[in-house]
Amino acid sequence: MLDSLHDFINGWTTQLTNENDWYVGTPILSGVTPPDGVYTAFATCFKPHDASWLYSPEFTPKEGEQLMFDLYFDARSLFVWTTEGDDKNIDVEDGLILKRENAENMKVCISVDGGEWVELKNLWEDFSKLGYWDIIYDYEYPEFRHFTIDLSEYAGKNVKLGFCHQYLNENFGYGMFLDAVRVSLPPVETSYMLPMGLMFYGITDEMMPMYHSAIVPYNTPLTWPNMTSGEDLSYKWEYSCPTNEGVFTSEEMDLVSSYAPDFSENPDAPYTIYSFPTVSATNEAGTTGTYTYGDGEAFIFAGSHPNLEARDGSVMKFGMTTFDPADDMQVYNADFDLPAYGHCEMSRDWWTNHYFEGTPKEGDYAEITANMNFFYATGSPIVIEGVRVVSSVVCDPDAEFLLEIIGLNDEFVPSELLASASLKGSDLIAVDASFSPYPNTHILSFRFDEPLVVDGKNFIAKVSGFNSDKVTYYAPIQSFEPRELCYAFAELHIVSPSEQQDGRSMIPATGENDGLVSYLMMLDANYPYLNCEESEFAATADQTSKTFNFESSYPAEELEVKDASGKLPEWIEVEKSGRYGNTKLTFTVKSGGSDEEANLTVSAPGVSKELVIKRGTVGVNDITDAAVVVERQMFDLSGRRLAAEPADGVYIVKTIKADGSTNVEKVVK
Questions:
Q1: pTM to 2 decimals?
Q2: Contact, 39 vs 22, CB < 8 A?
């Protein structure tokens, strides 16, 4: 209903007690991005006024339609916010609102057939009930907030809408932007889950996050489960690649996408950047809902390493997490300053009382001994060099921590130890306090002796050792928002002599909102790839070398070439160069006598490619006098003798040797 200056002029009217109120402009000039279009209606706070009205044209709502609009405002500006002096009404120290006095407000009203205005929404009535800390934490910044009002009782009636802005105290107030006013059927609530195994960029050792960016392997199908509810819906998926401006669509219930490297612009580029998919769902009434993870501000990096090169040439290493580290994080306390899934002096007493419901018997106790994150199979090999765990830690230098990667069987039960690493308290990396929201934040950077290759297997990363008399405080930092899948668990050690119990149990980790969360554990890992369209080379007297063009996440010099015996045959030489889309391996076959064939494997951790190299009697050192070639005759395919050997094309070569023998072969150049 209201999306441009044209809409405002054609049918929308005003009744002002402040001549400067309700004008149309582009709030982006004030650093505010409208949710729809370019223009918004701006209710100002230039001059106090009791009621400045913006009226819609007359319209008739249909059955089931509702009013929707977006309003940009500062919740604090609704209050007279005086923190000092005789008129003090806000106690900042104790976090109290002593007196609730309205400074700015917006009312939404409706009129039937030109009759009296009926109030549908009163912003002050809704927000005046908030507590001090609700405003500080939940409404800290001004932003566009979405409102929906049911119009069922006005279906079939001729109505007008009225937006009434009030500015009641000239010392307070911020002004409001009104946008995206529309009356329609409720939109379809559309959403999708992220693919199992999708990894987000983590953070650097300085706690610098890579905002809303995920990393996925090349050439690996990813399934995006559609979570839209409703009947008789039709779907349309779209995902695009900004680097080549390609747009791909699907009308299936769930999207299966795969991302291929694009080296057309730069063969040395390590990534191809994609946008997250958008799903649209439309019902029989024609109402549509759309959803994109990150609201279009998130990107997928298809490639190998989660690293970025800085302007100074240094490389920022981010790691791979199970949640978006650009979102809010938390240290979850079971009680004041008692980390629920960590360790402190009071931890055992708290868990003992909690587990035994306040009635432990002599010798009973319960305590957290380990934290675990689930990592789901990515559908592609992943090479893990280590794991970084972010926690708030106070410990002795000789405290010892252990990290284990444990494979899971088909029932998701831990089944085998895949790798482990340990470190001491003196090895912890301290994070500068200005970069972390929690004191004593450290990164536990575990490194494996050899890279671990995990292919098609679910696994957990388990950290332990913090339940120790050498650790004063340990609090794992975890996601604030719940995860769609259950990622984080804690290991609870339970001892009860009376029940003859001494065992460990895995309990799901929750957060402030009781949703299942994920610990901030980052895999120092990469998705390797090695592709080549060709797989065979048969050397001839005229062609003893061939270059194979690869796409490789590894530098060419790190690729091993060997046969089943673990060696490269003596009659083959290999030259290596380049990386990514510029990887080249040139094979040269040395002279020799008998025909030979080598089945070679080009490999690096997590990847391999099979090649077959053949040779015949191609070397001059093994040719006898009787086999000396005395003449070579060339013919076209019609049998006509050619004066000289063609530079290219298809032709016949007749070789006449000293002993009178001949050989005829077809040559393709």
A1: 0.73
A2: no
